[in-house]
What does this fold into?
Amino acid sequence: MRIPLIAGNWKMNTTLSEAIELVSQMRPELEKIGNVDRVICPPFVSLAALKELLEGSSIKLGAQNLYFETRGAYTGEISPLMLADLCDYVIIGHSERRQYFNESGELINKKVKAALKVGLTPVLCIGEGLAENEAGKTEAVLAAQLDSSSEREYYSGGLVLAYEPVWAIGTGKAASGEQANETIGFIRQHISRQHGQGTAQQVRILYGGSVTADNIAEFINQPEIDGALVGGASLKAGDFLSIVKQTSEVK
Ligand code: PGA
It folds into this structure.
């Protein structure tokens, strides 16, 4: 049995005081919801304060990125070691990082490895662009992303995958539940071919891209989908709570 997971990716939103306010609003209800792993990924600068706020809570924190080196002359970067003290999860290879910061599969692979080494759970994002989707290249793109950025031992370390079609992110045009289920089924098959059936059955694969309180049920009712990576809707306390609640009821 794979435990469902809902992660909120706040992206570059919320000041420190807004972050504290949002978590304070959600905490009492979010705390009560069982059998779903709940993860909040605020900007780096809010992690320390939110860690304090969530002391003793079952709600987990995640970062949105990291650098793969432990320490040194990398001005502006944040290391896995620094994050290991502050949170449990880290989003890696988000399409916005691939697109705006030119992150390659090779770099993403190093980041995933570095995260696992310090005990962080990476949420590795993969997804095809609109042109690739329309050209029927979705499966080839996903297979290439998986092959370049993941290795067999990452799965036993607890790696989580997030399938986020780039055309669905922040656009309000989510994939349909069936579409997402089919593609995530393909991802699982690919992992099975590369690393065996056991590994494929155990890895949690989330859907991401315009998930809302109104459409979450469509995704979590699908057998291959283990939860969601939620952007915009995770910034509204009521919406995020509703997404987590619905997940807990269905799964
Ligand atoms: P969205 O973002 O829910 O706002 O589409 C999802 C993501 O980028 O992780």
Observations:
- The chain is about 45% helix and 15% strand.
- The mean pLDDT is 97.
- The longest strand covers residues 121-126.
- The chain has one domain: 5-250.
